[in-house]
Amino acid sequence: MIEMTYLRYEVLRTWRNRRFLLFSLAFPLVLFLAVAGPHKGVIEDGVSLPLYWMTGMIAWGSMVAVISSGARIAAERAVGWTRQLRVTPLPTWSYFSAKIFCGYMMALLSMIVLFAAGSLIGVRLDVTQWLVMIGLLLVGLVPFAVMGIMFGHLLKLDSLGPAIGGVTSLFALLGGAYGPLVTSGFLFDVVKCLPSYWLVQAGKTALVGGGWPLEAWVVVAAWSLVLSVLAVRVYQRDTKRI
Amino acid sequence: MTDAPRGETSHDTIVASGLTKSFGVVRAVRGINLKLARSSTVALLGPNGAGKTTTIDMLIGLTQPDAGTVSLFGRSPRDAVKAGMIGAMTQTGQLIEYLSVRELVTMMAAIYPAPLDVEEALRISGAEDFAERQTRKLSGGETQRVRFAIALVADAELLVLDEPTVALDVEGRRDFWSAMRAFAARGKTVIFATHYLEEADAYADRIVLMSHGRIVADGAPTEIKATVGGRIIRATLPDVDLTSLQALRGVTTVDRKGDAVTLNCSDSDATLRDLLTAFPQVRDIEVRGAGLEEAFLELTLDPDEAAP
Predict the structure, then answer these.
(1) A80 — contact with chain B (CB < 8 Å)?
(2) Are B60 and A87 an interchain contact pair (Cβ–Cβ within 8 Å)?
(3) Where are the domains of chain A?
(4) Could you tell me the domains of chain B?
(5) CB contact under 8 A, B90 and A84
(6) Which residue of B has its CA nearest to A76?
(7) Considering chain B, what is the average pLDDT of its residues?
(8) Which of A109, A146, A144 minimizes the C-alpha distance to A29?
(9) pLDDT digit string, tens, across residues A177-206
(10) Is the pLDDT assigned to residue B304 strictly greater than 60?
């Protein structure tokens, strides 16, 4: 159970961080309009380019949102704030939950903004399809939220920006957020093992119906599990020393 | 409520026994035994590197001791922290951004079971004048006040302050300590670390003196001052028997270098009177306060400590 007042101020802090808004909302939106605005054709299997790019940009923006939110722990660690929190009754889990909550809040915002932009330039989905898409995106973000918490305990403050930028761009690129990278062969099999690929596929999945195939669930669950184990180890190593 | 371990009464806030902690080859704390009575204000006094911070960190569960036990109100430090029984101000630390001072203190108050009123905490700590300001726009002294407000807002039974006045100027220090006094007057137990004898003397009812990871003296401020706050008389006095100097009132130790003698005194006034009466030929008399560093040095130079 998270203390509501505590959570409210964490949300307020996230909202006041303009850089955060810029990277998780503005950049993907601008890129989406620049690419999908003039190109309205079909990109693959009946999926229009605007729908594909909308999902891709949501995947990218929301990945940045949830990773950055957890990674902000690094900033709070650097100024000794987490140490201060450890002499308060706030459970570690609540501290992490608040960070994850804020990340998801920004991710949802990123979805809403891009959905609106998508609708404007002709992406048409019915209510069920929108909901399926949101649901899949939320689940697909779990490994990245955990990755954020891990970064928060692993990285120094000055390497945080490049690390988040690099990792999210790489996952976005390989996952096909900027257009399908490969569609067959060995490399395609590798790409399908990335959680970001399935984030990008959420749009197509919603359009076709029927949800993710089993392998998508396995990939997302496996990444979540492995990253959680790593995050716990990094956290323990980090707090033992203080 | 948990049952208190044997040998401990409900009168005690902190009971620590046999605490040791090493960091690699550095033996930071080498066996600390400490009992703190409820509603007392205790100073942990010692020079830098004495092991004060490590001791405090072990008391509040931030550091796991290599050996020894700590009990706070009959619980483990982690449990006492979880129950909101401790308000702490650790040695270093900045505040998180994107909140005003009032918002930050309100946020922290929310995680305690029975917090102090936020306005009250801001008032006592002296942070109310800049309560609307963003935390990143505060000076070092203002930041310390906010950190103090956060420790106060817990309204905990035990307040732990690790060198709280380091970033403050003289006036800020005075304000800080009177605020601490006001809070302690509510029947709270306070333990603070400092390397200023004057602070420990003025604001604690008990001083625990630490050096090289050990407690070297423990008692009321007057007793500790007699031990470490004495004066040194230096004078030129050729061909005098050291034992006759040692016999003067108020002398703790004597030393001679050529014609110069040095008397360490617990009561330099009495010593001076006796000295002038017994040795009228004494000249170049010089009386000065013994520095805390010298006193620490003396206290830690006993034989078993000198051996590595």
Answers:
(1) yes
(2) yes
(3) 2-241
(4) 12-225 (3.40.50.300), 230-289 (3.30.70.260)
(5) yes
(6) B96
(7) 87
(8) A109
(9) 998 888 888 989 999 999 999 999 998 888
(10) no
